Amino acid sequence: MAASGPRRAPGFTLQDIKGQMHDLADYRGKVVVLEFMQSTCPHCASFVDILQKAQRKYGDQLAILAVGNPPADNATTISQYIAGHQITYPVMLDCGQVAFSYVLKGQIDLPTVYLIDGKGMIAGEYTYSPLTRGFFEGNDLFSEIDRLLTAR
């Protein structure tokens, strides 16, 4: 489901499992796919393939950032998830603060994805459901990225 009205993407800086810091502001000018995920979520795991295809297709025009949250995830579970799926984009660990600054409610359904345009505005919000299956399992993500890239 698309976000209601434009909203500036909350800024954040998080560390990935390799110790590298990722500041959302560093990705300004690119389309950002921000995924809130869990290493045990089957829909998150299948979405990895879509994200890797998007990364190959769009190259430097796109940044993919995945965020896991305790208590379900920790450095060990995230490292195993990255290795098991051969993930090449950053996967970071949040204490929940970043997730809740986006979701704006006390609970997050996983996976939840925010598309952020090159100006730092949230251009779409998607949570897995029967209505968003095409986004998480098909080509709808690519259509949305294409739309954002042509709108620049």
Description:
The protein is an alpha/beta fold and 152 residues long. The protein has one domain (7-150): Glutaredoxin (3-Layer(aba) Sandwich). Helices cover 34% and strands 24% of the residues. The protein has helices at 42-58, 75-85, 97-103, 133-137, 140-150, and strands at 7-8, 13-15, 21-23, 31-37, 62-68, 91-93, 112-116, 121-127. The two termini are 22 Å apart.
Largest sheet: 6 strands, mixed
Beta-strand residue fraction: 15-25%
Q: Classify the helix fraction into a percent range.
A: 25-40%
Shape: globular
* Spatial order of strands in the largest sheet: 1-8-7-4-5-6
Query: For the record, what is the CATH homologous superfamily label?
Result: Glutaredoxin
**Arithmetic mean pLDDT:** 94
Distance from first to last alpha carbon:
22 Å
Low-confidence stretches: none
Number of domains: 1
In N-to-C order, the SSE pattern is: EEEEHEHEHEEHH
Tally of contiguous helical segments? 5
Oligomer category = single chain
Give Rg in angstroms. 14 Å
Q: What is the CATH top level name? A: Alpha Beta
- Give me the CATH fold name: Glutaredoxin
Question: What would a concise description of this structure say?
Answer:
With about 150 residues, this protein is α/β, with parallel strands linked by helices.
Q: Features of this protein?
A:
Glutaredoxin; two-stranded antiparallel ribbon
Set out the fold topology.
Blueprint: E1 7-8, E2 13-15, E3 21-23, E4 31-37, H1 42-58, E5 62-68, H2 75-85, E6 91-93, H3 97-103, E7 112-116, E8 121-127, H4 133-137, H5 140-150
Parallel strand pairs: 4-5, 5-6
Antiparallel strand pairs: 1-8, 2-3, 4-7, 7-8
